[in-house]
Amino acid sequence: MTDFYALLPSLVLGVGGMVLLLGGVLNKKTDTTPAVTFGAVVLLLIAALLNLTAPDGMLFHGLFTTSLFTRFADTLVYIGAIAALILSVDFNKREKIARFEYPILVLFAVLGMIAMISASDMMSLYLGFELQSLALYICAALARDNLRSTEAGLKYFVLGALASGLLVYGISLVYGFAGTTSFTALANVFQKGADTGTIAGVVFVLVGLAFKVSAAPFHMWAPDVYEGAPTSVTALFATAPKAAAMALFLSVMAGPFGHLTDQWEMLIQIIAVLSMVIGGLAAIGQNNIKRLLAYSSISHMGYALMGLAVGTVNGIQASLAYIAIYVVMSFGAFACVVAMRRNGKAVENIDDLAGLSSERPGFAFAFAVFMWSMAGIPPLAGFFAKLYVFATALNAGYDTLTIIGIIVSVISAFYYLRVIKVMYFDRGEPQFDRTSAGAGFVMVIGALATIFFVVVPGPLMAVAGEAAKALMG
Amino acid sequence: MNQLGFPILSLITYLPLVGAFIVATLSGDDEKVAGKARCIAFIFSIVVLALGVFVWTQFNPAIAGYQFVEAVPWLSGINVEYSMGVDGISLFLILLTLLLTPIAILASHGIKTRARSFFAAMLLLETMTVGMFAATDFVLFYIFFEAVLLPMYLIIGVWGGERRVYAAVKFFVFTLAGSLFMLLALVWIWRHLGTTNIAVMTHSHISPEAQTWLFLAFLAAFGVKAAVWPLHTWLPDAYGEAPIPGTIMLAAVLSKMGAYGFLRFALPMLPNASAMFEPLMFVLGVVAVIYISYVALAQTDMKRMIAYSSVAHMGVIIIGLFTFTVEGIEGALFQMLSHGLVIAGLFICAGIITARGETLTLRNLGSLAINMPVFAAALLFFTLANMGLPGTSGFIGEILVIVGALKVNFWVSLLGGAGMVLGVTYSLVLVRAVLFEKYARPELSRLKDLTGREYAMLVPLAVLVMWLGVYPSSFTHAFDAPIAAMVQAHTAALNPHIALAMVTAK
């Protein structure tokens, strides 16, 4: 019965998704999109609540595990997906891309993410990985009459397929040399070290995962896909799959490959530094707010990976906390981008924000909060995310890594600052359309969480710490 | 908890935040909201000022350590406490902030556009500044130190003059880059001492080689904030372009943050490096005093001239801090308070002229003394205090610094003292150009003398300047204990055998 309870959230999503799909297909007369979206949000909420009380343990003879770590990452995925769905209701309607399939695709993508977070076998990992990827490829091309959106979908698909190929090739190498796909068995095998073939396999797996979290140098797809996909879909891309892929990254590196730290540590450090630097520098030249956020998310992934590079429980804790805070800042920032509409059309240039603070002080303030927080200016949540990562990295003796991180974060403060400068100092009349209630709600929740994190940082850090312990054992 | 059994420092720190929230959520048409917002902001700032004065009355000057201490566990896992406290050094800087905020709010009469945001930003600035002076944990200090940037950036950039955007961005980038070095120093110290508690850090030993690097990092962070020459170039732009209330807060309070940082961190924590860099700091201080005084003399704008005079005075403060004598450091601290009051008075005088629709270009001013006698008296008074006339606060600060420097190095004392003479030159140029008839224009004769609101701003400042000048010991007796302890610890750190002798003597 333990199996059943641990499986319940996934069952709710899977079965519920099917029911909604049937409902949407059978009812042809009325527009079912709002109802289906509402249903999907309710299913996600139910799954999230069930997930909180799910017991620890193994499922299907060791194909999946549940622990505090998976519950923590799952919760982040649910939060990101719910926020993205709320944002999509009004946006998709106004963009005339409101199709009832979208929330269902999101449900299946979330199911895939849950599966890959809980995976404790290479096969189940790949299964979850593909399920979420396929659903997301379609989401990227949701605006199928729009050239940029279809281009984004296709680009995402081709590059994603390549990454999946690398991942599965890596898995096959690891299996070939170790003789098993189970995480626990792999960890046992690697206790005695690993030969070159296995290392090659590990590197391929790592590359596949780095692609998913859009860490440099495997980030090329992110800016184009972020820009091309409809904003409501981009909001999803920037939150739930990022959290899921990052969690997978952590669990694979700390789990089956946990004894090979010496081999992959350097690679993670290189990826972390490249992500921070490339994400930070490339964003400076961007005029499109979605591209800017894409580069910003690349650099955030670099900071989150710094925690993994440290490799200790504290490091994992810092990474988890970073992702949690990143998810909140991201959906908040995308709520602002979703609300950037003029005369019924979405506008995406930073210059379109000129003068926003006189016209819509609340909107501008919320956006400024997210930008400052992403830049890591205290007392906002983003500062603490960075502080924890830097503090643990430094305590573990990674001086150079920390110094690079701090310098890059100051350089990148420049482009976040530019957004604020445009909103507050430049004159202009953005005359944005009325913000939908959903976007406003997400914006307010995100801003409050970002501002007031300083008051009670304890609970999140404590849970992240426990989750890290659960992962590292 | 502390002698009051009540977290009064947190109350003082966060009450303005509540005010900021109330002000920001006001609704109604712009005209009415502006008045209401100013009124609410003023009430809040007066209430916290009263609380601050209450803390002063309860303050025990005999204790060198922190008082009214609060400590709560805060960042779990990395061992950071939320801790606050005041000692004789921070007490008056907090009071200075609390006093100048309501005055700056009174000076914001001209702010009509987006008034809610403006007053919310002012109150936010008060919270951040007071929090920074009261923080006794380095992480907490850093957070407040950085957070001060946010409201100030907006105040300069939104309500500033013509080149406001340039000035705001320059201000932000300079300070952020400086703070980056402080953050690096912070994480280094954190790792090696394992604590971020300031009191513990002060009594820990750091190897002399490491001290050198840490000192340079602090110099970058606090030097920018305190506008030490040659890191001062953001200052004339920021002071010149900020709206008058913003300039008052920048010049009177924010510039003290840097000097406070030196006093709180660089001096006690890094005794060897401080001693090693003493000549450098003296040179920087003397250059600031002499060179910047000449630069001030060349200015054609009243606000910029006062701004440069402020940089020159920061030079005096730096010299005083690095004498490592009780007189020198007390003089520097005294000068910090005095300069805060005097410079605020001068900028208010400049604000009075702009409020009457005139520019601050010296060429377009003149003969104001005829129609605005009270204004003329006030400007003259603050100018005299600025140049250090005996009987005003400026004199006490400068004379203490000169005496302290004399104990260490005659030439530093002489050249630093030359600043007083050079101060006279630009001050007199300023007074002549504004008050007397050099550039008189007929339009200027229509200007009215001070209003009640302007009296309310200038009179408290003038009274305090006189009080500091005539009876300085009501202030100095509070900082005697911590500064004596600091100087003693400094000597002991540099000469271990003396320290041993002192311990055995006890």
Automatic annotation (TrEMBL), chain A:
Subcellular location: Cell membrane; Endomembrane system; Membrane
Similarity comment text for this entry: Belongs to the complex I subunit 2 family.
EC number: 7.1.1.-
Domain NADH:quinone oxidoreductase/Mrp antiporter transmembrane: 119-412
One record GO biological process: ATP synthesis coupled electron transport
Keywords, ordered alphabetically: Cell membrane, Membrane, NAD, Quinone, Translocase, Transmembrane, Transmembrane helix, Transport, Ubiquinone
Native source species: Acidocella aminolytica 101 = DSM 11237
GO MF entry, a single one: NADH dehydrogenase (quinone) (non-electrogenic) activity
Entry's Gene Ontology cellular component terms: endomembrane system; plasma membrane
Membrane topology according to the record: Multi-pass membrane protein
Name of the protein described by the UniProt record: NADH-quinone oxidoreductase subunit N
Catalyzed reactions per annotation: a quinone + NADH + 5 H(+)(in) = a quinol + NAD(+) + 4 H(+)(out)
Automatic annotation (TrEMBL), chain B:
Location in or out of the cell: Endomembrane system; Membrane
GO biological process: ATP synthesis coupled electron transport; electron transport coupled proton transport
UniProt cross-references to Pfam families, sorted A to Z: Oxidored_q5_N, Proton_antipo_M
Transmembrane segments: 6-27, 39-59, 89-106, 118-135, 141-159, 171-190, 210-235, 247-267, 279-298, 305-326, 332-353, 365-385, 410-435, 455-472
Single GO molecular function: NADH dehydrogenase (ubiquinone) activity
Family that this chain belongs to: Belongs to the complex I subunit 4 family.
Protein name listed in UniProt: NADH-quinone oxidoreductase subunit M
Organism (species): Acidocella aminolytica 101 = DSM 11237
